[in-house]
Structure formats: C-alpha cells, structure tokens
Amino acid sequence: MEQRIQTQTSFIGRAQEIEEISALLDNPSCRLLTLVGPGGIGKTRLAREVASQKQSIFNNGIFFVPLASITRADDVLTIITEAMPFGLQQDTRTPQEQFFDYLREQRHKHFLVVLDNLEHILDSVTIISEMLAATDNLKILVTSREALNLQEEWVRQVQGLSYPEHINGTPPEAFGAVQLFLERARRIRGNFRLDEDYPSVVEICQLVDGMPLAIELAVGWLKTLQPADIAREIRRNTDILETRSRNLPERHRNIRSVFQHSWQLLTENERDVFKKLSFFRAGFTREAAEIVAGASLYTLAGLVDKSLIRLGANGRYDVHELLRQYGAEQLDSAQINVTQRAYIDYYLGMLRQLEADIKAHHQMEALDTIADDFDNIRNAWLMAVEQGHFEALNGAVESLHFFADMRGRYVEVVTLLHTAIECFPPSPTMEQNIVLHRIHARLIRLIFLGNLRIDFDPRMQMDACLKIAYESEDQAEIAYCLLVSGLVDMFEDNRQSQRFQESLAIYEALGDPFYEAEAMIWVACLVWNDEAFNKSFAMRRELGDYNGIAWLMLMQVEGALEEMNYGEVEKYARESLALMRKIGSLKGVVQSIFKLAPLLFLKGDFEEARTLIEQMRDLADETNNLDGKMLSSGLYAFIISVMDENYAQGQIEAQKNHRISLLRFFGWNYMVARWGGAVASCGLGDYASARAEYGGFIKEKHQDPGHATVCLALEAAARNHEGKFEEASELLGLAFNQPAETSGWLHRWQLISRLQDSLKLQLGDTVFNQAWERGAEFDVATIVRAILGETDSDTRQKHANLALIEPLSDRELEVLGLIVDGLTNRDIAERLVLSVGTVKVHARNIYGKLNVNSRTQAVAMASRYNLL
After folding, report:
1. How far apart are the first and last CA of the chain?
2. Which residues contact 72 (CB under 8 A, 6 or more apart)?
3. Rg (CA), the chain
4. pLDDT digits over 362-397, tens only?
5. Number of H helices, E strands in the chain
6. What are the C-alpha distances in Å from 323 to residues 144, 167, 339, 599?
7. Are 348 and 396 in contact (CB under 8 A)?
8. Three-state secondary structure along 505-559?
C-alpha cells in the first residue's frame, strides 16, 4: 500500500531548496538523489515536502520507507517491499527474485521511493543500484547523514534554515529559522510576539545555525524561560536542547543523542581529528586542518561524507556550531594544550608571513586571506594573550594592524590590542616591554586613523614607545614611532610635525619603500609638495600598494575641491570608490561615496546619488560605522527633501546627523552634511532655522558654487516669504547661473519650480525676467557674504538690505547720495574736493555694482534698496 506523504506540523521555509530539489528530480539523468546533512537539520521533513509536491509527476505512486529503526542491512529489502504495492507469491523464487521481477514488469511506470535515514546501514546500498537497473522510470530519494558513494548518486547538501546575520531592516518573515521559532512559540504562548525579543531570537537561530530540530527544542523552554535566557543557556551548554515530548522519536529528544548517533558512525581516527577541528571558528582550509588537527585529505572527505563537516564552494570547510561544541567536549586536557598551541602558531604565524605580501605585490590576496580567517585569528590572538605567548603576539601585530586600517576593521582590532596590553605583567622584562610598546604604538595609529575615542595621553605614551625603540636600537621601530608621533602632533594640536621628516629619513636609509612612501605623503600633506606626492604615488604603484593608491586618489579629490574643479572631483572620486571597493576598505568606501554622491546630486543625477547614499547607509548600519551613519543621514536628509519633498523625515535625518556630528566634526564632510537640515527647514517654512545652517556649510570659500547654490536657493525662498519678490528673483537668477555641475539639482526641485511660478505671478513676466537677468550678473562671493552678514560693519548698519549687490564703499555711497540730490559731476567734485575725473570713476563703479546704465536707474536702485 502506498505510504501517504504528510506531516503533523506545518512546513516552514526552504522555498529555494524545494525548487532546486524538484528540478533535480525532474532531470531524466538524476534517478538517485541523496539529501545529505547532519541529524536534526530537517532532511526528512524536506524530503516529505518535496515528495508531496511531485504526486502529479509520479502518478504511479510515491512510497515513503522509514529506515531509522532498522539494524540489519538484510532487512532493508523487506521494508521496501512492504511499503510498495508488491505481494509475495507461493512459488520457488526467493523474495528478492520476486521483487525484482515485479520491478521489471513495472519498468515503464513512474514511481518515487523515499528511503529515509539510511546512514547506519550503508552496507545495503547495492540494492538501490539493482532497483534502478531493473526499471526505466523509478526514482529514489534518500536522506542520510552520509553520502552513499554510488555511481548513480546525485548529492544535495541540506543545511539549516536561513537566519539574519545582522539585525537590519529585512522583515523577520524573510528568514525560515525565525519563522519556525515564531510559529512554534505561538503554540506555547499564544500571544508571543518578537518585538524586544527579536535580537535574542536571532541569536538563538545563529547559535544553532538554523538547525530546525535545535530551534524546536529551544522553543520548548519558553514555558519557563525568556528568549534571552535560552540563548544564554545554549552558549553555556547544549544540554538545554532537549524535550520531554512523548511523540518525538527517542533519537530526537535532545541534541546530544542526535550527535552521539553521528559520533558512533565515525572511525577512531575521524573522531580524533574531529575533536581537534572544534578549535576552528567560521571555517578553515585544508592546510590548516592538516597542520592543526592532523587531518588528511582522506579523513576530511570521510567527515564530509558523514555530514560532520561541510565543504563550501570556496574550498573552505566548516563545522556546524552545535557539532563543534560537541566535539570540543570530547577533548582531554592533553589534547587541548597541544592543539591550542598548534592553532596559535598557525594563525599568528600566518599573520607574520603575510606582512611582506601586504606591503608589496600581493596585498589584496593577503588581506582576503586574513578576512577569510579573521575569526580564527581573533581566537588565536585571545588564546595567545591568555597564555602570555608574547613572541607570537609580537610577530602578528604588524599585519593585524595593517588589516584593521586597510579593511576598516578598526574597532575589532583595537579591542584585541587593548586586550593584549592588559595581559602584560606590571613589571615586564625588557623583551616583554619591547612587545608591549610595539603593540601600543600600533594601537595609537589605529585610534587616530579610525577616529576612535582615546582614554589615555597619546603623546606621553608615544614618548615611552620611542624611548624603548631607541634603547633597543631598532631603527625600523624608531621610524615607526616617529611617524605615529607626527600623527599625534597633527591630530592633537593641528600642527606641523618635524617627526614625519625624521621618520622619512630613517626609512630612506633602511630602504623600506612601503613606509618611505607612507612617511613621504604625510610630509607632503602638511606643506603641500607636488613632487613628494607624485613620488609617493609612483612608489605605491610600483609596490602594488592598492590601499595607498586609493587614499592618494581621495587626496586628489580634496585637492580638486580646494580648486572648486567639480569635474575633476567626480573623476577622482569615481576612481577612488572603485579601488576602495576592490580592496574592501569600509572607511574608504564611505569617504569616497561621501565625496561622489553630493556632486552627482548637485548636477541633477538624483538616481545614482540616492543609490550611493543608500548603499552607504546600509554599509554603516551593517558595520555600526559611526562616520558612515553621520554622513549618510545628512545626505539622505538632503535627497529625500528635494526628491520626495518629505521635509519632516528630512528634518529627522538631519537631527540624527547633528547628534553624531557634535562628536565627529571634520571639515568639508561636515559642511556638506548640513545641506540636508537647511533644505528640510526651508521646505517646512522654518526659514530662520534654514538661515542658521548657512554658516555651518559655508566657511571661507564664499565663491564655491556648490555651497552657494544651496544658500542662494534657500535665501530666495525666504525672501519670497518676506514679500521681497524682486530680491528672490535675483537670487534665483544668480543660483541658476552657476555651473551646471552645481546647479542641475535646482531644475528638479519642485519647491523651486513653484517659487518661480509664484514670483512670475507677483511681478509679471517682464519684471521677473529683468530681476533674474540682473541677479545672473552679480558676483556670487559678494552676495553670499552679504547674506551671511559678513560685509563691512558700517555699510551693513547703514544698508540693511544690501544683500543682492556688491557693497559700495563709503566714498561711493557719498557720491551716490549727491547724485540722488541732483548734483552734476562737477558739483560733486567741488563739494567733495575731488577732480571731475575721479568723480566719473566713482560713478562708473556705482553703475557697475548696481547693474544700471544711467543716473535715473541709479537713483531708482538707491531708493529700492534703501541705500541712503
């Protein structure tokens, strides 16, 4: 009789796996498919679900054959025949002969046989090959903790349900593991909601690597524990993952019994190797497994076949976290000591070996290697700290701090360095003291380059590091300490430091091109030197120092910004961003996007700008990068205010930017981030707040068209609100007359379009156009200064409305007053004791500044602006 494919509980998640497995079963070449995975991963449920969806394809029957209770290979055939519509006959043939005759008779029919839990009776697998040979359309779906290793076999690995790697904006429903937890939790607590428990639920799913059985066992504890308590207990001991449910198979009542079953399937050598593999975190290479755990390729292959370890598409192996914990419990103290030392030596030794590659020619490959094994490196570092293995720490710290800087992993590595420093004895030996100060010097460099908080006196500490370097006569370390001391001088006191030059001289003498190029660029930055900059660039290209090249490109962006060459800024910013992404520098990607996105926005390419800003936001949220959060919130305020006219949300984003920027002020970046707050305030009609922001993003460069277009547009809206319609029109004329690279955005802001329509209605087309044309001729720096109230104090006091014209000098105002009184040039000359020629010069200057051509027009402008 056909076995009905059904389950007692709802099936959750695995849509992609079901689709892929269904496609394999539809493939005529795939007649034997094995779902391989560790116990509790959900192979049986997955096989049942797939089979239930294929009933129209296998219209002659789907037969489910449970094999978990079978202990002898000889019984497999009996169980299969009992599951299928086959009956024994009273004749001289054996049962096996009768069964295969039956299959040959049915050879053209479409059957699916599901053989569930075959791993413990692999001696019986030859019968599967014989069944396939006897038929044309029979297909067999197997679940097993170990591959069958038959020629006909296709293997599909089964892993845990999906779960969030980080808590971000993705809805919980997108993750199968979270869905399963929530669905099962509501059976125990009908009103269970994620809300504040969501982080703990995610942690549980992460701890069990999405294993469905482990999730269900964990949920069972909701009767007495909160999710946070369950997560804490799992971290301590996997024994919590058990249940008292009577209708769950004995072998699934707790995770330990599941693992013990797998453990019994291993050879003695496989057990020994697997225990040692429990030291690894987040995967490992074949080389690491061989050196640390003594694992041969054959042993690794056996452990993969038995689902104790997994081989990824990238060639790295990894162990399910709960299996890893189980393996670690099997280690004795002698094995722990030996394996731990091998583990430390391998990973910290790897860092020492990669130092040369990071500095030249193989930089990205070396950084990728460290990134792939960073969890193992961190674990090895902490083990070395605990054991006081100072020699290993000393050899590893250089590469580790390079990785932190080049990949933007400042916080993680700074934490590791702090931990190491705290482990040193109060009175270290000279050898220990050298290591201590070597680590401290690199810690300080990372703190300044990563813009992190510092809770000690860096100058005093660097003086101590430099003293030890001199005492040990280590020229390379002396040069390094001088370099970092120069950074301290620059960041702490904003002053030029001679120590950069001293460091450069030593590195030149040592013939160290990597650090020579580094010291050279700091020298070039303080007193700009094109020759030094270009030489450093050339040296880095020759070395293959892509990180250094990328940051020099970003410096070129800063140079182009100083010259207000927006075309060059975009060119260099794009090149920098591409290279920062290539090397994987988080800090560099954030900074490059921040330089590029505002330029794209200003020229009106809103769509690409928005994409980049959202990428920066996601990256900052994912990595908790404070600079990225600050910069992206400021720009996002700008873009949603202009593109969506969502001024309320723009103001919220701007406020978020302000809160962070109070702690992290830095130059042009800070100023650009203020645009969003000003635009949002303007859109909400809060012109006072908008005006208060001008000084925040316009410093000395009043002629900068990027900042100026923002200031002019917002001031135009404010003047319109005050009923000063011609002034508003003139400001718009000046704003739209700025280069296309900085004024393109104005054409797409609907508020500005409405403002233009309103001004035309108020003034009429003729007057509006005249005002627009007058404004287009004004000097942008002069107008911006006037808006900011930075004109001459006496003039500003006399002429409060002098915002739209180049300020007149006191003598010019005196001449203008006499012109208004109707005096001729000769009369004015006599009154002021000047020559007539001098009066004519003053008159011409007045006409030019007022953008008029006659005395009558000058008198009208003087009246309009209340100049006298």
Report:
1. 108
2. 121
3. 37
4. 999 999 999 999 999 999 999 999 999 999 999 999
5. 45, 7
6. 17, 25, 18, 52
7. yes
8. HHHHHHCCHHHHHHHHHHHHHHCCCHHHHHHHHHHHHHHCCHHHHHHHHHHHHHH
